[in-house]
Amino acid sequence: MNQLSSRKSGTGWRTSLTCYTDVDMLKPQALANSFAGTTIILYIVLFILKIIAFPFFQLIINSQFFGINIADEVPTMNLANFLGVLIAVGIIAWLVGYLIATIYNRLIT
User: Which positions, given as ranges, span the membrane (predicted)?
Assistant: First the structure.
């Protein structure tokens, strides 16, 4: 029988199992917040880069797809589209981060 006892540590929850010694669990909300924040910041940086230095933006985007000309297919953005995409990307990134932390915590117990 596995005895599961948990205690709070500085980085997350620590779990003591009989087969493992002190496995760190992830805090789902903290990981989800960091995923969403990082994704939103990256989206804003790329949007500003598209406005300020379009050739450099093309280089970065096209290199992600091994040179296929994808940057020319990016639609023109206005404020409503920018905010809509920003909110959608933030919500999806938050959900993915929360899901990853939850699945990870269930798999280590």
Answer: 35-61, 81-104
pLDDT in tens, the chain (109 residues): 444 555 555 555 555 555 555 668 889 999 999 999 999 999 999 888 888 988 888 888 788 877 778 777 777 778 898 999 999 999 999 999 999 999 999 998 7
Whole-prediction pTM: 0.69
